[in-house]
Structure formats: C-alpha cells, structure tokens
Design a protein that fits this description.
The chain is mostly helical. Helix content is about 65%, strand content about 0%. Helix 1 runs antiparallel to helix 3 and helix 6 runs antiparallel to helix 7.
Length: about 110
Amino acid sequence: MPFYALLLESQALQPRLTIVKTLIHSWHNMTTPLNTVQQKFVDDFAADPDIQQAVKSIEAKPATTRNHYADYGAILSKLSGGRKIVAQLLGLAFIKAGANQQGVADALNHLI
C-alpha cells in the first residue's frame, strides 16, 4: 500500500489507535506492540530513502536545539498534517531510520 494511503487510513483508524508518547521514550524496551497497519507504516517510512536522507541531513548539521528537536518537530509537523498518531508513528520511523531518539521525543512533546 502506498504511503499516502496508509497516512489516510491511519487517520480513519485514529480512534482505535492507542500509541502514546511513552512509546517514543521506550523505543528499545517497547511493551505496547504496534498493530500490523502501524508496524507497516513505521517500517515503510523508515526504509524510505527520502526519510533516511532527511534524518542523515538533520543529524549531520550542527545542532541549533538540543538533539535537533526543532528540526524533527518541523518535519514531523509538516508530514503529519497535525495528526497526533501520524506524528507519533513517523517519530518511530525516524528513530528506526537513525534519528536521535531524545530529539524526536522532545519534538513530539512540543507538538502534542
């Protein structure tokens, strides 16, 4: 399924989704598993060359905020269209693609 279709589907599923900010903080010790749609969304976005390049670009430049949280906040806000669950899932994808975990978590805390 194309990314945009998953993005639209995730909006329709939003009432049933239970992802919370703590998933970002406990990425390596995740206790609440993602459902199959969420996992596919995260995996596909993490593997996308544009997402990987965005993460590499952010991590390569000098940090103007702690752990680049402002850079991650800007891109998460733009890509998610202001939808909380989409921003959280994208945050997981960014972390999986190599983003600074604390920077993404801080960005989500400011967005949500």
